[in-house]
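Lab intake sheet, docking and co-folding queue.

SAMPLE TYPE: protein with bound small molecule
LIGAND NAME: copper (II) ion
LIGAND FORMAT: SMILES
REQUESTED OUTPUT: full 3D complex as structure tokens
PRIORITY: normal
SUBMITTED BY: R.K., bench team

The fields below were copied directly from the construct record.
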Amino acid sequence: MKVDIYERVWMWGVAVVLAVFFISTAVAAYGRQFHPPSHIETIDPRTALTDPRMAPQGVSVDADGRVHVRVVGVTFAWLPAEATVPAGTPITFHLTAADVVHGYQIVGTNGQAMAIPGYISQFTTQFMTPGEYLIACNEYCGVGHHMMAGKLIVVPQEDWEPPTASQSPALETEEVAG
Ligand SMILES: [Cu+2]
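RESULT FIELD (auto-filled):
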């Protein structure tokens, strides 16, 4: 079969581009362990609010002094709706949903992950500028989607008061790498 030279060039070009996409994705995923912040851990969505990995919802400090925020998305609210964290400190967010897929987005920052029923999403970030940040739901989740907003309050490190012991569950030693 005769294939025109130009057509041949385009076919090879497409093959090379596809190969580059595939290899770069494979290197990132398997070589450097880059994964989306979802699907790290599974959870029963019916008990998401009481599961020891997600309860109590809100801010806590683990034995190593690291700050965690646990959030469960429900139609149409983030639980808790408000969290106060220190500036300039790595904060690990743990997210899941009790009903449908929601999108947790701390507007104006790089803090964002999907909250998916059945999975715990996790990401760590830090906020350098104290202030109030809107937390929006960026996955359409139903008629009340537009009302699904929360607030993240970032305060200077020296003004931040760690939650009391009763709010910090002891069961926080097992951290998932990722
Ligand atoms: Cu939502």
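REVIEWER NOTE: The chain has a mean pLDDT of 88.
SIGN-OFF: pending second check by T.M.
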